[in-house]
Design a protein that fits this description.
Elements (H helix, E strand, L loop, with lengths): L1 H54 L14 E2 L1 H13 L8 E2 H10 L3 E2 L4 H11 L3 E4 L5 E4 L4
Helix pairs in contact: 2-3
C-alpha cells in the first residue's frame, strides 16, 4: 500500500507540472509576441528618426558605419567627445548623467542593456576625457583642463 501512495503523490505532482507548463508556455508565447511587436516599433521609429534628421540636415550623408544611431565602443566615444566639445561652456566640468542627456537630446541612443553604464564605461576609457575629483561623477575634455 505504501507504494500505491507514493505513485499517487507522483501522479499528482506530474499533473501539477503539466498544468504549470501549459500556463508557462502560454505566457512565453504572449511575451514573445510583445517583444516582437516592440522590436518592430523600435526599428520603425529609428528609421523615422533617421529620415527626420536627414530632412533637417543633421545627418545629410550618413556613412555606413554611422547608419545606426545606437552608439557603442569607439564611435560612442567619438560622438560623446564631439557633443561635449560643441557646448558653450566646454571648459566647465559636467556630470556624466548630464553629458549622457546631451547625447540623448541630440537624438543618439547608446547600445547595451544599461545604456548609462555603457556610456560611463566608454568615457572612462577615453584619453580625451578626464575625471574631475574623485567620486564626483564630473568629467571634462582633457584638452579643456
Amino acid at each position: 500500500m505504501h507504494r500505491d501512495a507514493a505513485i499517487e503523490v507522483l501522479l499528482t505532482e506530474r499533473g501539477r507540472l503539466v498544468s504549470r507548463l501549459e500556463q508557462e508556455r502560454e505566457q512565453l508565447e504572449t511575451l514573445q509576441a510583445v517583444v516582437t511587436n516592440l522590436e518592430e516599433r523600435v526599428s520603425h521609429d529609428e528609421g523615422m528618426l533617421r529620415e527626420i534628421e536627414s530632412a533637417l540636415g543633421k545627418h545629410p550623408q550618413l556613412q555606413l558605419d554611422q547608419a545606426d544611431i545606437r552608439l557603442r565602443g569607439q564611435r560612442l566615444e567619438e560622438v560623446a567627445v564631439s557633443v561635449l566639445a560643441t557646448e558653450e561652456e566646454v571648459d566647465q566640468p559636467i556630470h556624466y548623467r548630464a553629458w549622457f542627456e546631451l547625447l540623448r537630446m541630440r537624438g543618439y541612443l547608446v547600445a547595451g542593456k544599461k545604456p548609462l553604464d555603457t556610456f560611463l564605461a566608454q568615457i572612462n576609457r577615453s584619453p580625451s576625457v578626464e575625471k574631475v575629483g574623485s567620486r564626483t561623477g564630473l568629467y571634462r575634455l582633457a584638452d579643456a583642463a
